[in-house]
Amino acid sequence: xxxxxxxxxxxxxxxxxxxxxxxxxxxxxxxxxxxxxxxxxxxxxxxxxxxxxxxxxxxxxxxxxxxxxxxxxxxxxxxxxxxxxxxxxxxxxxxxxxxxxxxxxxxxxxxxxxxxxxxxxxxxxxxxxxxxxxxxxxxxxxxxxxxxxxxxxxxxxxxxxxxxxxxxxxxxxxxxxxxxxxxxxxxxxxxxxxxxxxxxxxxxxxxxxxxxxxxxxxxxxxxxxxxxxxxxxxxxxxxxxxxxxxxxxxxxxxxxxxxxxxxxxxxxxxxxxxxxxxxxxxxxxxxxxxxxxxxxxxxxxxxxxx
Length: 306
Known about the structure:
Elements: H1 6-10, H2 21-38, E1 49-53, H3 62-75, E2 80-84, H4 90-94, H5 106-112, H6 116-119, E3 121-122, E4 129-132, H7 141-145, H8 154-163, E5 173-177, H9 184-192, E6 195-201, H10 210-223, E7 229-236, H11 243-256, H12 269-273, H13 281-284, H14 289-304
Parallel strand pairs: 1-5, 1-6, 2-4, 2-5, 6-7
Antiparallel strand pairs: 3-4
C-alpha cells in the first residue's frame, strides 16, 4: 500500500498530523489560560463606570454576567460594587452574601432612604467585591415606589451619594443586576447607570423583545438620563458546534457592530453549578472555560475605556 502524499491530503485524504476538533479545543483552552494568567491586573478607569445589566427576557444570563464580571474584575485588583436589584437575590447568593428576609439591603435604600454604606456587605470569597444585597422584601417595591417622590431617581441618588464617601470614592466599577422586567426597578437602574450591558443568549428567541428594550432605553435617555449609552453587548450560552449559535452571533454582530464583545460566553455546566455552592464561576472553577471567558470579557470591557 502506497503512503499518502501531500497531494493526496489536498484532494481530500485525511491528514493524520492535522489537529482533531477535540485537540483543537484543548489547544484553544491552553491559549486562553495563558492569556488570562498573563494579565494580573486590569486597567483602572479614569472615573467610576456604572453599568446596568439589563434584558427583560429571563434566562439570558443577566445575573451570571453581573456576578462573574464583577468577580473577575475584583480578582484582578479593581474595586467593584455589585447592586442586586432582583427580588430573587440570586446575585447575592452567588457572591456568598446572606440575604434572608429582613436583611438590610437595596429595599431599605430605595424605600427607607438608607445609605448604601449602611447596608453594603463584602464577599467572603472575592477581595475588593462589595455587594448591596436584595431580599424577597424587594418583591413589593415596584408597587410601593409608585407613590414615592422622585421615584425613578432613588437608586441614582443613593449610588451618587455613596461614590462621594471615602469608601465609595475607591470604586472603579458598579454593576446593577436587574430583574427580568421593564418596571420601576429596572428604570431606577437605567437612571442610575451611565452604560447598559445587554447579555444576549445565542438561541432562537434571542432577539425577540430586544426592540422593546432598546425603545425603553431611548425613553430613559430622552426623559430621565441623557448620558445613558448602550455600550456593551455580550453573547451568552454560545455553542460553537451549532449553526444556530453562529447564526445568532453573526446577526447580533451585524446589528450592533463594535459594541459586541469579541468574547462569547459558552454554554457550561460548571457555570450553572457555581451558584449552588454560593460562588461565582471565578472562584468555583477558575480554570474552566466559563471562568476564562468571563475573565476575557472583563478584560475587554476594561480596555475599551469610556
